[in-house]
Amino acid sequence: MTSWYQSLIPNLRHHSIKILQAEWVRKPLAVFFVLTFLVGCSTASSNSTSFVSGDGSTTVLPVAERGEALVLSGTTLEGDELSVDQFLGKNVVINVWASWCAPCRQEAPELKAFHIENPDVQIVGINTRDNDPAARAFEEFFGITYPSIVDPDGSKQLVFRETLPMSAIPTTIVLDKSGRVSARILGAVTRSLLVQVVDEVNNG
Fold this sequence. Notes:
The protein is of the alpha/beta class. It has helices at 4-8, 16-26, 28-39, 102-117, 132-142, 191-203, and strands spanning 58-60, 73-75, 81-83, 91-97, 121-128, 148-151, 171-175, 181-186.
C-alpha cells in the first residue's frame, strides 16, 4: 500500500530540493506534513509532538479496582460534542493517536477492521498534539469513521492518570459496560488483541 502521507505530497523524493528551496516557504502545511512524518514517534518532550512508542504491553484491571465511571468529553474533528458517558451499556475502546505517529498508521487498518466487525463496541479516538488538516487526511486515507476528540495539548489524557496513565502514543484504553477504565494497551494494537482484551474485561 502506498504510504498515506505520499498521497498528500506527491513525488516528494524527486522534488525534495525544490521543496526545500521554495515550496516550504510558500506552503507551511506541507512543511508540517514532512517534518512530522520524518520525526515519527520518539522520546517525549513538553515542547515537541514526539512521544515514546509503547511495546504492546497490556494491563487488565480486576473489577474491584476499576473505580468510578470515566468522565471524558470534548469536540470531535467533525465539530460535534461527544461524551463517553453516552455509550454506557457498551464497551468503549479509546485510542490515543496522532497523524505523525508511525505506529498509529500501522494500527489504523486494525482499528478500522475491529470497528466494522464489532458494532457492539464503540471506538472513540483522542487525536493528540496534532494538526487538524493532517488528522482529517489521516482519517480519510484509512477510512476511519468512528469519532475522535481533539486534544491539541494532551490535556485530555490526564483523566487516566489515577487509573492507567498513558506513557506512549498510541495507547488504547478499554472501558467496561459501566464506563470504568478497565484495560490499557501501550503501543499499536491488532484486532485480535482488542477482541481478547474486551473479552477479558467483560469476564473479569
